[in-house]
Design goal:
With 134 residues, the chain is an all-alpha fold. The protein is built from six helices and two strands, in the order ααβααααβ.
Length: 134
C-alpha cells in the first residue's frame, strides 16, 4: 500500500471506530428508552461515511498521545500520530508518490510541500479538512 494510502486508511479506521462507538452508545441509549438495540444501532451505521473529519481525529489523537504534536504544520508529527514511519526515507517516498519535483534533499522545503499536499489530497478524497490546512 502506498504511504498516502496508509494515511487515508489510518484516518478512515479511526473514523469508523468512532462511528462504531457512537453506534454502541446509541444502542445502549435505545435499550434504556425501550427501543430495540438493532433499531438504535442502525441509525448511525446506516449513514455512509461521507467525510472523515481529519482535524477532529488528529486533535483527539494528539490529546491522547501525551506528547506535544504540531501536526497542523509538521508532516513528521502527522505521520507519527497515525503510527506511520516518518523517517526521511519514508517522506522521500511519499514525496515521490505525490509528485514532488523539488530537491528531496532539501527536507524543510519538501516537508512543507508534503504537509500541504497531504492535506489537499485528503480533502480531494472526501476528508473534511479546514481550508487553512490545505
Amino acid at each position: 500500500m502506498s504511504i498516502f494510502g496508509s494515511i487515508m486508511a489510518k484516518l478512515t479506521g479511526y473514523a469508523e471506530a468512532a462511528a462504531h462507538a457512537a453506534g454502541s452508545a446509541a444502542a445502549a441509549v435505545g435499550a434504556a428508552v425501550g427501543i430495540g438495540s438493532a433499531q438504535a444501532a442502525e441509525a448511525p451505521a446506516a449513514a455512509p461515511l461521507a467525510k472523515v473529519d481529519v482535524e477532529k481525529i488528529l486533535t483527539e489523537l494528539a490529546a491522547k498521545h501525551g506528547q506535544p504534536s504540531n501536526w497542523r504544520v509538521s508532516i513528521v508529527d502527522l505521520m507519527k500520530l497515525l503510527g506511520l514511519d516518518s523517517s526521511f526515507a519514508a517522506r522521500k517516498e511519499l514525496a515521490h508518490e505525490l509528485g514532488f519535483t523539488g530537491d528531496t534533499n532539501d527536507s524543510a522545503a519538501m516537508n512543507i510541500w508534503l504537509h500541504k499536499q497531504v492535506m489537499t489530497k485528503l480533502a480531494e478524497n472526501g476528508g473534511k479538512v479546514p481550508a487553512e490546512l490545505h
